[in-house]
């Protein structure tokens, strides 16, 4: 089986990575094993080049990142992997992190709620 | 600013799509062939509903309308279908003239005339579906058919029930319904069965089903305002439930679009306060029976658990009063 080795140094190699992906045959399976930032970059380029998500499998080496999509201001904030609630980095809304993930919004749903005690302060 | 106070109910009961046919309710794939394929309806509340919808779209554009840029052609197809249906069913209210690509659409109820070039979105004030959707009280969701699934690519949603066009944009039918924790009476996965059914819908043969919920003094409940309506639900008491709690009925119609092959969801949402159920004895009895029998997980899923007991208590007191009066005669 022919093997092609490509040295990647970051986004400056974007076009070269895309060229490699685009030159593959239909039905090619794409496997990514990388640290978070590199995996995100390669994954995005794969999708941009026309691979479906079912054709890509990813293993993250090292810590994973998790994001919550604020339903108040529609911005994304990074949250701890095991966090159940969070505060939006942008509008400071309290968010309950739901189990549902949006590929378009690139985060888990963040349901706004008023923490106990906060409503009395506000009123 | 839109306040969500719900000064609106169905007044012509003949137009209210009452949802229950038996005294207990479970989720099922209850789709039926649509007898009248024209989805345009002008009810006595048309103006009030459309004005409210326009205000929501104006004040909350990112919440109420979402689309992908590649959907323009599909949106024009929907615009054409809705305009033709409106002019066909209500020629006294809606009129269209077509001179090649130069179209003029008139809405006589609002006294509005718009001329545009069909296929050229720059000649409209909004995207095609967003524009035409502002002339009808319905919600419209366009689900694009791809890889044996449907993806939400356009949505104009002004009556949300635990739904958000902003959040659900781009999601597959399975992803949108992922949290449905129920199986049908036969034990099948419901969302899977409905998706498979939708795949079989053919152009010119739309289908329909009715969904229902209860609303605690709200026009709608979306994810964006969960911090507001979440706590408000516990303000319902057996004494105020008759006025404040509405039976919310969503008549869903599904059309296969012949050119794009997408499925258009047309949603007709109507409200009836619990106190108005007494206007039709059969509706009162069925609703009382159904609400008494709602399993806990279903009440949680529908978001009605915090005020369902008070609503049932209200109906029980009405029922007991009726029976007492009958016995005293």
What does this structure look like?
The complex is a heterodimer of chains A (123) and B (329). By secondary structure, chain A is of the alpha/beta class. Chain A folds into 2 domains: 11-60; 66-122, no CATH class. Chain A is 22% helix and 31% strand. Chain A has helices at 14-22, 36-48, 118-122; strands at 30-34, 56-60, 66-70, 76-79, 85-87, 94-102, 107-113. In chain A, the strands form 2 sheets. Chain A has a 5-stranded mixed sheet, with no helix packed on it. A two-stranded parallel ribbon of chain A has the order 1-2. In chain A, a hairpin with a 5-residue loop joins strand 3 (66-70) and strand 4. Chain A is elongated and about 65 Å long. Chain B has one domain (13-328). Chain B is built from 12 helices and 10 strands. Chain B has helices at 46-59, 61-64, 72-89, 128-133, 165-168, 173-176, 190-199, 226-232, 241-244, 281-292, 296-302, 308-328; strands spanning 32-33, 65-67, 94-99, 102-107, 112-117, 139-146, 149-156, 207-216, 245-256, 263-273. In chain B, the strands form 2 sheets. In chain B, strands 1-8-9-10-6-7-2 form a 7-stranded antiparallel sheet. In chain B, strands 3-4-5 form a 3-stranded antiparallel sheet, covered by helices on one side. The longest helix of chain B is centred in the last third of the chain and has 21 residues, at 308-328. Chain A binds chain B through residues 52, 69, 71-72, 74, 93-94, 99-100, 102-105, 109, 111-114, 119, and chain B through 62, 147, 164, 166-167, 169-171, 175, 178-179, 223-227, 230-231.
The largest chain-to-chain contact, stated as pair and per-chain residue counts, equals: A-B, 19 and 18 residues
For the sheet with most strands of chain A, the description reads:
5 strands, mixed
Taking Cα atoms only, what radius of gyration of chain B do you get, to the nearest Å?
Answer: 20 Å
Segments of chain A where pLDDT lies below 50 for 5+ residues?
A: none
Number of helical segments with 4 or more residues of chain B? 12
Supply the number of structural domains of chain A.
2
Count the beta strands of chain B.
Answer: 10
What is the subunit organization of this protein?
Answer: heterodimer
């Amino acid at each position: 089986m022919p093997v092609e080795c490509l040295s990647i140094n970051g986004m400056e190699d974007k076009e070269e990575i895309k060229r490699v992906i685009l030159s593959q045959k239909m039905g090619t399976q794409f496997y990514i094993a990388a640290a978070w930032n590199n995996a995100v970059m390669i994954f995005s380029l794969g999708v941009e080049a026309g691979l479906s998500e079912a054709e890509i499998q990813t293993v993250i080496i090292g810590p994973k990142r998790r994001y919550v999509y604020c339903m108040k201001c529609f911005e994304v904030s990074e949250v701890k992997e095991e966090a159940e609630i969070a505060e939006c980095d942008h509008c400071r809304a309290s968010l309950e992190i739901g189990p549902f993930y949006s590929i378009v919004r690139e985060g888990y749903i963040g349901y706004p709620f008023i923490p106990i005690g906060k409503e009395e302060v506000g009123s | 600013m839109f306040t969500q106070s719900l000064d609106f109910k169905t007044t012509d009961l003949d137009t209210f799509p009452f949802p229950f046919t038996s005294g207990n309710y479970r989720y099922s794939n209850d789709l039926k062939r649509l007898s009248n394929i024209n989805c345009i309806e002008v009810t006595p509340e048309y103006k009030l509903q459309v004005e409210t919808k326009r205000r929501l779209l104006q004040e909350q554009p990112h919440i109420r309308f979402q689309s992908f840029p590649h959907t323009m052609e599909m949106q024009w197809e929907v615009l054409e279908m809705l305009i033709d249906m409106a002019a066909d069913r209500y020629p006294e209210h809606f009129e269209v003239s077509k001179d090649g690509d130069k179209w003029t659409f008139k809405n006589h109820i609002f006294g509005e005339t718009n001329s545009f070039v069909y296929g050229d979105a720059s000649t409209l004030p909004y995207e095609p579906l967003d524009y035409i959707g502002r002339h009808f009280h319905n919600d419209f969701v366009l689900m694009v058919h791809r890889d044996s699934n449907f993806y939400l690519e356009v949505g104009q949603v002004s009556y949300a029930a635990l739904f958000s066009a902003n959040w659900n944009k781009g999601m597959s039918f399975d992803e949108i319904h992922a949290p449905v924790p129920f199986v049908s009476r036969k034990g099948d996965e419901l969302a899977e069965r409905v998706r498979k059914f939708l795949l079989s819908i053919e152009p010119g043969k739309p289908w329909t089903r009715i969904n229902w919920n209860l609303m605690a003094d709200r026009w709608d409940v979306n994810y964006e305002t969960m911090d507001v309506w979440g706590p408000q639900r516990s303000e319902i008491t057996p004494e105020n439930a008759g006025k404040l709690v509405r039976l919310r009925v969503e008549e869903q119609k599904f059309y296969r679009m012949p050119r794009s092959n997408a499925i258009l969801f047309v949603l007709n949402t109507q409200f009836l306060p619990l106190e108005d159920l007494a206007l039709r004895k059969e509706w009162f009895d069925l609703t009382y029976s159904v609400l008494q029998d709602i399993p806990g997980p279903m009440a949680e899923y529908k978001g009605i658990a915090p005020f369902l007991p008070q609503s049932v208590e209200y109906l029980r007191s009405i029922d007991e009063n009726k029976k007492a009066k009958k016995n005293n005669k």
